[in-house]
Design a protein that fits this description.
A hairpin with a 6-residue loop joins strand 7 and strand 8. A four-stranded antiparallel β-sheet has the order 1-2-14-5. It has a four-stranded antiparallel β-sheet with strand order 7-8-6-11. By secondary structure, the protein is of the alpha+beta class. It is elongated, with a radius of gyration of 22 Å. The protein has six helices and 14 strands.
């Protein structure tokens, strides 16, 4: 089903503003008739707005249900970045089997000598406010992650050998869904949500 022919960019901006601030709206029109072809592009300021925007698929605007999906350009871009990251190697590491007394400051002191760290996170149990025994280290360079993994996997820390493994990018998995403990198989598979593109597309149903 096509988008309504009287639909304006302002209407789409107001509609999608419920999930995030809209940067740009473009309605595709026929070159000759100037009538809407039933396709529009919405760009958000914040990539986090894309996921809730995709969930609006099927919602009616001016009585017509819409279909919301990533643009092909963004799909191609994501695939290109994924291939590039695969060629360069992973930059995110899982660190497990940690003693409950280990802090983020301690982890940073151990991992920082191998390269610049973008982010470091030690997973904390919200009920006990104590470490769950694992965390994640995100390096700027893949080579830094490789060297850290090679030299620190099995390294004894506070009397316990720690596990250090690669984390691969996967869709629709978040850190909260990983549980309090990850085994070796989960470490190899990864499972961290890394999906976000700031542009979505409205298509005819």
């Amino acid at each position: 089903m096509q988008l309504h022919t009287r639909l304006r960019a302002r209407d789409l901006e107001e509609f999608f503003s419920q999930v995030g601030k809209v940067r740009d709206v473009r309605i595709i029109s026929d070159r000759n008739s100037r009538r809407c072809k039933g396709i529009a592009y919405i760009e958000f300021f914040d990539e986090d707005s894309v996921a809730p925007a995709l969930k609006l698929s099927g919602t009616k605007i001016m009585g017509i249900p819409i279909q919301v999906q990533h643009t092909q350009a963004e799909k191609n871009r994501a695939a290109m970045l994924a291939n590039l990251a695969k060629e360069q190697g992973p930059t995110r590491l899982y660190v497990g089997s940690l003693h409950c007394n280990i802090t983020e400051t301690m982890l940073r002191a151990i991992f920082e000598p191998f390269g610049y760290i973008d982010t470091l996170q030690l997973m904390i149990d919200p009920e006990t406010n104590r470490s769950r025994g694992y965390g994640f280290v995100q390096y700027r360079e893949a080579e830094s992650a490789r060297r850290a993994k090679e030299q620190l996997n099995g390294f004894e820390l506070a009397g316990k050998p720690i596990k250090v493994g690669e984390v691969t990018e996967k869709m629709d998995h978040s850190i909260s869904n990983m549980g309090s403990v990850l085994d070796d198989e989960e470490t190899d598979r990864g499972g961290i949500e890394m999906n976000a593109n700031a542009r979505v597309q409205l298509m005819p149903n």
